[in-house]
Amino acid sequence: MNSNILVLSIPRSGSTWVSEIISQAGGLRLIHEPDNEKIRLIARAAKNKTHRFYSEEEFKSSKINDLWSTILLENYDRSYITEYLDNFLNKKKSNVIKENRLYTKNKIPFGKYLMKKSTSRLVVKSVHGVFALKSILSIGDFKVIIPIRHPANVFASYKRLNLNDAGRIFEKENYLNSYIPKKEFSKISESSDLSRIISQIAYQYKYIFDVKELFKDRVLIVEHEKICEDPNFWFEKIFDFCDIQFSEKVKIAIDQRNQSGSGFATNRLMSELKNKYKQDLCESEIDEIRNLYQKIEKNYKW
């Protein structure tokens, strides 16, 4: 298989790092979060008021399907984009299409990508499509890499950066009712910040493992902490799964990122990441996280 590659995870799980390392292989280009409406006008047009972490139902009832088909399969249905931009900017379509800066914040000029076929395989990174993974996989034949991270490490990162996405799925009534029992959803939505965040992580992981069972040969789940312990071994495994060459250039890229960093940068001392939550959280928080998580999700043992 010589198809595009999707790196999908929940936020703060290493997906940016993993996707950047994969993109170091020859003949690959990186598209960073094309479904993030905060940095992509094209995503705002496609999602059109769906939840930030959109569900299977929202995927099917909105233009998100067209967005992913355009990116991963190069079908180039741009009608919803130009229509949205016409309304948003009050400009003619011919002028709007030329303004590539409107489609992108960084990484690659996304507007240019929509105008012509790519000569490279694409590495596409997303942290918003977890609850639509089944539908995304159903649109075509490509590989998916899913980094998962210790729930306590994810929570500690949320807490450190004060992220608004933490527990966001429980802010919208009747959201994900087909997957999360309504009574449980209502109970969690009225609970503490920690409870909402860990419940969100647990349900996202549970959904990932459920979908993995349906698409075993196309989905590779890798633990963030294991990659940090032996990055060359695990990245070589990822590259082999994606049918790409693990080269000296890639090893150098891994080593270059193995240094102190903060915030949203992908530089990190890998030796410090495995049990970083123990430095940031107290024992009572860790125990509460473990108990909350294991009530919902049983596949990931920690």
Secondary-structure topology with pairs:
Blueprint (H helix, E strand, L loop, with lengths): L4 E4 L6 H8 L5 E5 L8 H7 L8 H6 L2 H10 L5 H11 L3 H6 L11 H6 L5 E6 L6 H6 L4 E6 L2 H11 L20 H8 L3 H22 L4 E5 H6 L1 H11 L6 H10 L19 H4 L2 H14 L6
Parallel strand pairs: 1-3, 1-4, 2-3, 4-5
Give a concise summary:
The chain has helices spanning 15-22, 41-47, 56-61, 64-73, 79-89, 93-98, 110-115, 133-138, 151-161, 182-189, 193-214, 224-229, 231-241, 248-257, 277-280, 283-296, and strands at 5-8, 28-32, 121-126, 143-148, 219-223. With 302 residues, the protein is an alpha/beta fold.
Describe this structure in words.
There is one protein chain. The model is unreliable at 91-116 (pLDDT under 50). The two termini are 34 Å apart. Helix 9 (151-161) packs across helix 11 (193-214). A 5-stranded parallel β-sheet has the order 2-3-1-4-5, sandwiched between helices. It has a single domain, classed as P-loop containing nucleotide triphosphate hydrolases (Rossmann fold, 3-Layer(aba) Sandwich). It has helices spanning 15-22, 41-47, 56-61, 64-73, 79-89, 93-98, 110-115, 133-138, 151-161, 182-189, 193-214, 224-229, 231-241, 248-257, 277-280, 283-296, and strands at 5-8, 28-32, 121-126, 143-148, 219-223. The protein is globular, with a radius of gyration of 19 Å. It is an alpha/beta fold and 302 residues long.
